[in-house]
Amino acid sequence: MSGHSKCSSIKHKKRAADAKRGKLFARLIRGIESAAKVGGADPDGNPTLAAAVQKARDASVPKDNIERALKRAAGDLDGISYETVYYEGYAPGGVALYVECLTDNRNRAANDVRAAFNKNGGALATPGAVNYLFKRTGVVVVRAADTSEDEVLAAGLEAGIEDVVVDSDTLTVVTQPNDVQEVRAALEQAGIAVASSEVTMLPSVTVSIDEESVAKAVLRLLEALEDCDDVQNVYANFDIPDRILEAVA
Fold it and tell me: Kind and range of the H or E element at 244?
């Protein structure tokens, strides 16, 4: 590769990374504004907002951006009014998808989500088809190399830990949605570094994907949905083994 071509490639990759970062920041700011408008602009009295603000901080969203979002939600600054809309459907392999949108234009959101499903082998479903498979849950993630399951339980059980899921790299702490910030604070007070915390939707059942072609198709659809401007979160119930993920990567 020539020096000029290599430089152009690096610039292109940087622009793509910057675009993804900008889109992530916009998504997190929308989440803050939406949570604040529903439950109030004071994080101390609004656990959902507190979790949204912490998620933005974990992603390195600038403090000024977060403060402006809170002011807009409180009515101190002019801003766009967003509404939450959900879409349900299936990816290849029978994987259930629950798509959360925050949008100021329902028609645009619906058209973009429908196009992503249609172009990537998925199928939209009627409301109620898959949402019962997911439960709103608080999740706090710590690195397995930094602590142990026993230490995590000792530090956060009284704060509201319901379960700890252990894998090779992380310990995933499961809580009630309103307990996620209190559990995080208890862990940090005990000297346990927290990688991230959020309120999310976890599936009650999972679909195992053991074929590379199906895994590629599922991930392609997820990426297409996440690229939609109005999509806030995509929840899925697939279980892809590490060996398959490594192969498709």
Answer: helix 242-248
What integer best gives the mean pLDDT of the chain?
87
Extents of the domains making up the chain:
3-74, 83-132+205-248, 133-203
Indicate if the pLDDT at residue 80 is higher than 80: no
DSSP string, 8-41: HHHHHHHHHHHHHHHHHHHHHHHHHHHHHHHH-S
pLDDT digits (tens, 9 = 90+) for 155-169: 999 999 999 999 888
In sequence order, which residues have a C-beta less than 8 Å from that of residue 77 and are 6 or more positions away? 68, 71
Helix (H) or strand (E) holding 222: helix 212-226
- For the chain, give the percent of residues with pLDDT over 70: 90
d(Cα 19, Cα 37) in Å, to the nearest integer? 27
Pick the CATH number of 133-203 from 3.30.70.980, 3.30.930.10, 3.40.50.1820, 3.40.640.10: 3.30.70.980
